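Propose amino acids for all 418 sites.
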């Protein structure tokens, strides 16, 4: 069991205060040596997490040549943002209009005021780059079954693909479920009524005809990623009805597979920045997730690419406000984030000084932060009255992350649309 006084002393010794991005440069320099920098967040609704990750990403892009941002968002809607920042022809006149593409709940994760200036910065940066050097913005989550299926049909129709009829058959099979994930999962799991055969037929045909899709490299990537999303989303929705742990694994395995496809597009030495919740980017082996057989992006990328090529930075807060819903699908609202519970990681960071700070973990201090401690995690559904019952993940912090950024007081982000 961790001794509070010892931990406070360790934080006082090894944490560094910061009040500007420049003061984070020792951390950024070290992180930039990796091929993948994983930027976490303790919530999906905190302004400072988005704004600081944007500033870190700008630094990595402009000073260290990082080529893309991959986020915990759907491929089709993020692709609209990607098209905008790369200057492709579309109907969007500004970043805010582009973010209207994020319609699925919780839309505020990406359709928020904090993202707008970052997308405008990316567009301006790309305007001075050759087409092959433009920075990308991509979604690697698994939820977009219907949206990706629609994108596939539209694209195959536009190029008069021989696979169009098979795509229409698969799409027609999914249509009766009216984009209701639970409905499809129940039907597939308990009644053996699914679209698996139609989907496999389509994907096998597209694979055999792959040579016709390679005329436009980014259009080919778009098709591949939508096909990947459809394939893995079908598996995810089928599994989520009966096995939460396995469906979680399908989702995070999909994210890493998607990341690999995107990396291949940007080249053999691609360097990417990943924005996701701490529960995805912080190594699952350093939490109680491992006991339930769960894996995540942080673990899988370390295993796939090697520890030296992945640098995970966790983000947390002591208190403030956040945007979340009281139940899934309900309207977002601004909620209070109470002071972290005594003895938690966030409370100890506060005890070591009520200011923003960061810690870089290394061989010299690793053991000081390797004892299990409760670490705050807030999702898109939140009720602060019950926070102590389920919002603290037992974690070995120095094993979960390469570094940690603590924001003492945080504010809710600003959704763009109701």
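Proposal:
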């Amino acid at each position: 069991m961790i001794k509070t006084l010892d931990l406070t002393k360790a934080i006082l010794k090894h944490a560094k205060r910061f009040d500007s991005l420049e003061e984070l440069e020792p951390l950024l320099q070290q992180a930039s040596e990796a091929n993948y920098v994983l930027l976490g967040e303790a919530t999906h609704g905190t302004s400072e997490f988005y704004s600081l990750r944007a500033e870190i990403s700008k630094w990595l892009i402009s000073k260290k040549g990082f080529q893309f941002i991959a986020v915990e968002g759907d491929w089709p809607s993020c692709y609209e943002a990607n098209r905008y920042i790369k200057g492709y022809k579309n109907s969007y006149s500004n970043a805010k209009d582009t973010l209207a593409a994020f319609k699925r709940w919780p839309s505020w994760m990406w359709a928020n005021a904090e993202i707008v200036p970052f997308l405008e910065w990316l567009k301006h940066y790309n305007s001075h780059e050759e087409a092959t050097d433009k920075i990308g913005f991509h979604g690697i989550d698994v939820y977009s079954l219907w949206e990706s299926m629609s994108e596939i049909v539209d694209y195959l129709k536009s190029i008069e693909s021989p696979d169009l009829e098979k795509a229409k058959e698969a799409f027609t099979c999914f249509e009766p479920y009216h984009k209701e994930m639970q409905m499809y999962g129940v039907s597939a799991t308990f009644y053996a009524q699914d679209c698996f055969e139609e989907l496999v037929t389509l994907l096998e045909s597209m694979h055999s005809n792959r040579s016709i899709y390679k005329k436009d490299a980014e259009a080919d990537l778009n098709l591949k990623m939508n096909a990947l999303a459809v394939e893995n989303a079908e598996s995810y929705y089928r599994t989520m009805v009966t096995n939460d742990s396995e469906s979680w694994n399908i989702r995070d395995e999909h994210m890493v597979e998607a990341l690999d496809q995107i990396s291949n597009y940007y080249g053999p030495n691609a360097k990417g920045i990943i924005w996701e919740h701490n529960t995805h980017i912080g190594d699952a082996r350093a939490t109680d997730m491992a006991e339930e057989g769960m894996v995540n992006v942080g673990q899988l990328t370390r295993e796939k690419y090697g520890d030296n090529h992945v640098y995970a930075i966790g983000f947390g807060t002591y208190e403030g406000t956040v945007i979340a819903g009281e139940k899934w699908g309900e309207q977002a609202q601004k909620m209070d984030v109470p002071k972290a519970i005594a003895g938690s990681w966030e409370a100890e960071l506060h005890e070591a000084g009520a200011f923003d700070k960061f810690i870089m973990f290394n061989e010299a201090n690793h053991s000081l932060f390797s004892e299990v401690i409760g670490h705050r995690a807030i999702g898109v559904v939140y009720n602060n009255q019950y926070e102590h019952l389920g919002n603290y993940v037992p974690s070995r912090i120095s094993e979960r992350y390469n570094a940690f950024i603590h924001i003492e007081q945080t504010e809710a982000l600003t959704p763009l649309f109701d």
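The chain is about 45% helix and 15% strand. The longest strand covers residues 310-324.
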